[in-house]
């Protein structure tokens, strides 16, 4: 899950693969909490999965992202720090996709004050640096931008950088599914690398 600007998106359902399901069950048991919502995103309609094999004869429409408004989730704009809003708004003005990701999403939904805000965008890191001259690209293994807004550092990562990083542990169930657009696939892969209980 991710918040798009001030909207919220999640996949209505994802293709079922045994390994992510097992991984999900392992993480849920490990934490000893009930996250029934996590299962709902992975379970296929019964007629599509037979003995853990996708039935190719069943025709279905491509899956779509379901967007929730911040209001539907009880998130007010004032919950997001002013420097973060400035970064989100500036990237959106330049017509880039931009999302809040990670723990801040969970904290906002639970009405907690996030300790920091992480942003991901469709802009390349060098484009982010052009938009925010006070920005520094840091990290060799996983480069991100530190955008300095009024003495507050906002971490901005790029979908393109995320794609270049190897998907360790995800290669067995990360194949692009038929009918899945490139942008949906990028969002899905990025969510798989994040905390499942929040970004399922």
UniProtKB/TrEMBL annotation:
One of its GO terms (biological process) is tRNA 3'-terminal CCA addition. Residues 98-199 form the Poly A polymerase head domain. Transmembrane segments: none annotated. Keywords: RNA-binding, Transferase. The keyword RNA-binding applies. Belongs to the tRNA nucleotidyltransferase/poly(A) polymerase family. This is Poly A polymerase head domain-containing protein. The lineage of its organism: Eukaryota, Viridiplantae, Streptophyta, Embryophyta, Tracheophyta.
């Amino acid at each position: 899950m991710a918040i798009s600007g001030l909207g919220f998106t999640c996949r209505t359902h994802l293709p079922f693969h045994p390994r992510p399901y097992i991984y999900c069950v392992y993480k849920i048991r490990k934490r000893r909490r009930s996250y029934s919502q996590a299962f709902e995103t992975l379970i296929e309609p019964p007629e599509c999965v037979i003995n853990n094999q996708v039935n190719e004869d069943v025709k279905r429409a491509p899956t779509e992202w379901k967007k929730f408004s911040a209001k539907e989730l009880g998130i007010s704009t004032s919950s997001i720090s002013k420097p973060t809003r400035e970064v989100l708004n500036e990237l959106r003005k330049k017509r880039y996709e931009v999302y809040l990701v990670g723990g801040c999403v969970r904290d906002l939904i639970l009405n907690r004050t996030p300790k920091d805000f992480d942003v991901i965008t469709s802009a390349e890191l060098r484009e982010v640096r052009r938009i925010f001259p006070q920005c520094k690209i840091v990290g060799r293994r996983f480069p991100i931008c530190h955008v300095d807004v009024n003495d507050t550092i906002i971490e901005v990562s790029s979908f393109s950088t995320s794609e270049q990083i190897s998907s360790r542990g995800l290669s067995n169930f990360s194949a692009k599914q038929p009918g899945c657009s490139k942008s949906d696939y990028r969002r899905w892969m990025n969510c798989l690398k994040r905390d499942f209980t929040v970004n399922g």
